[in-house]
Amino acid sequence: MLPGAVFGPILTTSNIGSVGIIGRMVSGKMRGIPRIGLEIVDVRDLVDVHIRAMTSPDAAGQRFLATGEFLWMADVARILRDGLGERGRRVSTRQIPDLVVRLAARFTDPSLREITPALGRRNRHSTDKARRILGWQPRPARQTVLDCAASLIANSAA
Description:
Radius of gyration: 17 Å
Largest sheet: 3 strands, mixed
Shape: globular
CATH topology: Rossmann fold
Strand order of the largest sheet: 2-3-5
């Protein structure tokens, strides 16, 4: 199983991994949004597709993509800002120009170096095989993003 960006409700705050992106957005710690795109998959859908693959004889020896709907991070920011009401007021929707991200990665924040190759890249992978063989149907990315944020807020992680 090859997943996309895994978001959704958290079980614990001890290791939130990629969900930390949503947490930083909701808390207002991310003051601008890089031009990065994500193929968002809900953790619950990822579990579902794993179970389907383990229990389907047609899946033996196969590889499946478990990516979801493509959204730019700016889209994610707007979903959070609009969908969380008062809790979304600190989400920045200001897009940071690619050049500024590249300069910051080079001179002020080396942690940004790992994202610079993805700036402006619109990857889109097909999940047709998982849908066809496993009957897998991922939920909309909007729902995943909002459920993720609500879970982080409820667990005081955003």
